[in-house]
Each structure stands twice: as structure tokens, then as C-alpha cells.
From TrEMBL:
The chain crosses the membrane at residues 44-63, 99-116, 166-185, 215-239, 245-266, 273-289, 361-381. It comes from Streptomyces spirodelae. Gene3D superfamilies: MFS general substrate transporter like domains (1.20.1250.20). The keyword Cytoplasm does not apply. PANTHER family: MAJOR FACILITATOR SUPERFAMILY (MFS) PROFILE DOMAIN-CONTAINING PROTEIN (PTHR23542:SF1), PTHR23542. Keywords: Membrane, Transmembrane, Transmembrane helix. InterPro entries: MFS (IPR011701), MFS_trans_sf (IPR036259). It comes from the Bacteria. This is MFS transporter. Residues 425-437 have a biased composition (Polar residues).
Length: 437
């Protein structure tokens, strides 16, 4: 726990994680709140509710890089206040909007959602040292798991006791309070040694940072959430076949608790593990989960999967932070959020098709294979640009040992992560090591 105490002792870190948890929990619950409103408030079908959820998710996926780029250019506080204003208008108007208008408004709300998750990741990269960063991102991934466990469940419970329109207002209020809290904290998004990247002239060209190493990490992030979204559906399908669907909430809760435990254990490890190895292992252990005959065995199966979930997400976030130059860190973390949102959107239909054409166990197989495919793609992409001499850094078992004093190939403080010193070519060794860690 020493590593976590050091991270929480960083000035402003504990308050940032606390406020961000509120905002992320509310944002995680927004789809469920809109679903409950459409089904219960408008008395429409679940398919109609899915349409609203899809437009909101599409807005989130497209808006991540847009909002991140605005943060790079205009600064954090101005962008936060602008997105908070959009959320105030949207959530206040939800109970008064007809279905067609709600579809359009949900897309805009997703496009300009309060960027609590990307901002937290940017701030972690700026506020921590290389030695602290893995533990900090482990806490961030645990925060994400807690938000997914709490947010939708609270909305469902509240919808059974009060008007769905009031519940929607409550979710919107929490999003607004979280966004205003982050704006009030105004955490630094640049490390002390990094130059101010507020001017457009200091933004590095996209071709310098959006190369195979970055694409590899984004691909693995996409594959991770594709797997996780599919696992949720496969759990329900497996228990429905066993006539035990009422136990689905217990299995999902066990899954979440195991993920939290795995994230905390991973952050305390003395050395990182390669991102592709974590994702590949996650895919492998997911495939046999479909063999569980009933809910107790399924709980055992998802514990193994859960232990690797938060570590994989943490490794992806850590690698992105090391590869992102300071001048485009907002845009890069926005791309990361878009990749994660895209994976969540694809996972359920992909696994649903696999279940329909085979058996519920096929859903776990499809989710696991999707993770394996993303891990293999990430590994191959990250190894495309190798140093002229010596073996590829990906072949090393200990990334910290191959990268000098800074673990995982991190750039020196004051230099852009994943890049060399000014006037030099980007370091492929550092980029590959970032993907490993």
C-alpha cells in the first residue's frame, strides 16, 4: 500500500479522484437513466430506449477527440464550464422532449459530455512521476470499476421509487456538480518541466505521434472494452439458459469486486506487465467461462476474468500517457476514450450474434477471441518499427530493465512522453516499452 499512499499524498490528487468519481459514476448511469425514462416515462419499447443510448454513445465516441483538442487549445476550465452548460440544458429539458428531439439532444449531450475521465488521466500523467504513474492509473481503473458497479444500480433502485424524469434530473445534477468540482480544482495538465502547449504552433504534427505504437495501444483499448461489454451479455444469456437469470446481478457484482482487487494488486507490483500480454491473458481466461453450468461456477469463472480486467485497462491508460506528447495530450486521451466507447458499443451486438448462431457459451468465446485478436494486433503493430540495431524491445521480459532509469521507457521529465529530446527522432524503443507497461 506504500505506492498508493505516495500517490494519494500528491497535492490535489485525492480531491481530484474523489470529485472525478462522482462525475464518472453519474456519466456511467446516464444511459440507464435515459433508458428508464424512455421505457417508463414515455411508455415506449426497449428498442426505442436503445436508440437513445446508441445516439448518446455515438456522441461520446465522436466527441472525445473534439473536446480533448479544445482543452489543448483553450484550457481546461473554459472547456469544463462550456460542457457543464450543455449538460444543464440537456438534463433539464429531458422530461419535456418528445422522442425524436430526445434522440438529437442525446447525441449533442454525448458529443459535449463533461470530460471527467480524460481529464483525470491527463492530470495523473502531469501530477505523478514515472515511478508513481502505474499505481495512479491502477487507482483510476478501480475508480472506473466502482462507477460501473454503483451508477446503473442506483438509477434502477431510484426509478422504482420515483418519477424517471426526476431520476434523470438527479443524474444530470451529479454530472454538473462533478464537472464544476473539477473546474474548481483546475488540476494541472502539464508537468512542471513541460512547455506550455496552449498555442497551436507548439502542437506536434499528428504523423509524429499517431503511428503504429499509438494505434497499437488504442486497438488494445478497443479490444478490452469489446471483450468486457460482451462478457456482460454472455453472463445474462448463460444464466437465462440455466433458468437462473435472477442471479445475474450477483455474478456481475462478483466480477466487479474481482476487478477492483486485481487493479489494486497490479498497481502494487514492483514491475509492470506488457499490455498485450495482459489483454491476451484476459481473452484466454474468458473463453472457458461459458462452460460454467450454473451461477456458483460462473462466479468462480468471472473472478479469474475480473482479476485481469482493471490491470489491462490500467496498462492501456499508462501506455497512452507515455506515448502522448504534452501538446496533444487532451486529443490523445480523447481518442483513448473514443476507442473505449467504441469497444463497449461493438461488444454486445458482436457477442449477441455469436449467441444467436450457437449457444450462450459461444458468447464468452466470441468475447475472448475479440480480446485475443486485439492483443495480437497490438503486439504486431508495436513491433513494426524496430531499432536499427539489436532486438525488438518487445522481446524483453523486463521493460523497466530495458528503458534506463525511468520505468517503461518514459521520457525524462520535461520531455514529451514517447518522444526523444528536441531535435531528435521519436524513440521507437521508448514507444514499444510504453506499450509493454
Amino acid at each position: 500500500m506504500t505506492r498508493y499512499r505516495q500517490v494519494l499524498a500528491v497535492p490535489g490528487m485525492a480531491s481530484l479522484l474523489g470529485v472525478s468519481l462522482l462525475a464518472r459514476t453519474a456519466i456511467t448511469a446516464d444511459v440507464m437513466a435515459l433508458t428508464m425514462y424512455v421505457v417508463l416515462g414515455l411508455d415506449m419499447s426497449y428498442a426505442a430506449a436503445g436508440g437513445v443510448a446508441a445516439t448518446l454513445t455515438a456522441g461520446l465516441a465522436l466527441g472525445g477527440p473534439l473536446v480533448g483538442r479544445m482543452i489543448d487549445r483553450r484550457g481546461l476550465r473554459a472547456v469544463l464550464l462550456a460542457t457543464v452548460a450543455v449538460q444543464v440544458v440537456f438534463w433539464l429539458s429531458v422530461p419535456a422532449l418528445p422522442y425524436g428531439a430526445l434522440l438529437c439532444a442525446a447525441f449533442v449531450a454525448g458529443l459535449l459530455m463533461v470530460p471527467s475521465q480524460p481529464v483525470t488521466r491527463q492530470a495523473i500523467a502531469a501530477m505523478t512521476t514515472a515511478a508513481q504513474r502505474r499505481a495512479a492509473f491502477a487507482l483510476e481503473s478501480v475508480q472506473g470499476e466502482l462507477s460501473y458497479m454503483v451508477g446503473p444500480a442506483v438509477v434502477i433502485l431510484c426509478s422504482a421509487q420515483m418519477s424517471p424524469g426526476v431520476v434523470a434530473w438527479g443524474v444530470g445534477t451529479a454530472i454538473v456538480i462533478g464537472g464544476l468540482g473539477i473546474a474548481l480544482l483546475n488540476p494541472p495538465l502539464r508537468a512542471p518541466g513541460e512547455a506550455d502547449a496552449g498555442g497551436a504552433t507548439e502542437r506536434p504534427p499528428r504523423r509524429e505521434w499517431l503511428g503504429p505504437p499509438m494505434i497499437a495501444v488504442l486497438t488494445m483499448g478497443f479490444g478490452t472494452t469489446t471483450l468486457l461489454s460482451g462478457v456482460d451479455l454472455a453472463i445474462v444469456a448463460t444464466l437465462e439458459e440455466a433458468d437462473q437469470v435472477s442471479w445475474a446481478a450477483v455474478v456481475v457484482a462478483v466480477f466487479g469486486v474481482a476487478s477492483v482487487a486485481g487493479g489494486l494488486m497490479y498497481g502494487a507490483l514492483p514491475r509492470p506487465l506488457p499490455t498485450w500480454l495482459l489483454l491476451g491473458s484476459l481473452g484466454i481466461v474468458t473463453i472457458p467461462a461459458g462452460l460454467a453450468p450454473d451461477w456458483p461456477w460462473l462466479c468462480v469463472a468471472v473472478v479469474v476474468t475480473g482479476l485481469l480486467t482493471a490491470p489491462t485497462l490500467s496498462a492501456v491508460a499508462d501506455a497512452v500517457s507515455r506515448l502522448a506528447p504534452a501538446g496533444v495530450r487532451g486529443e490523445v486521451t480523447g481518442l483513448q476514450s473514443s476507442a473505449l466507447s467504441g469497444g463497449f458499443a461493438l461488444g454486445s451486438p458482436l457477442v449477441g450474434v455469436a449467441i444467436d448462431v450457437s449457444v450462450p457459451a459461444g458468447g464468452f468465446a466470441a468475447a475472448g477471441l475479440a480480446g485475443l485478436a486485439a492483443a495480437l494486433t497490438g503486439y504486431l503493430l508495436s513491433g513494426r518499427r524496430r531499432p536499427a540495431r539489436g532486438r525488438s524491445p518487445l522481446s524483453g521480459l523486463d521493460p523497466a530493465r530495458t528503458s534506463g532509469a525511468e520505468p517503461c521507457g518514459a521520457a525524462p521529465r520535461g520531455a514529451a512522453p514517447g518522444k526523444g529530446l528536441p531535435g531528435t527522432e521519436p524513440s521507437t524503443s521508448s514507444a514499444s516499452n510504453a506499450i509493454q507497461g
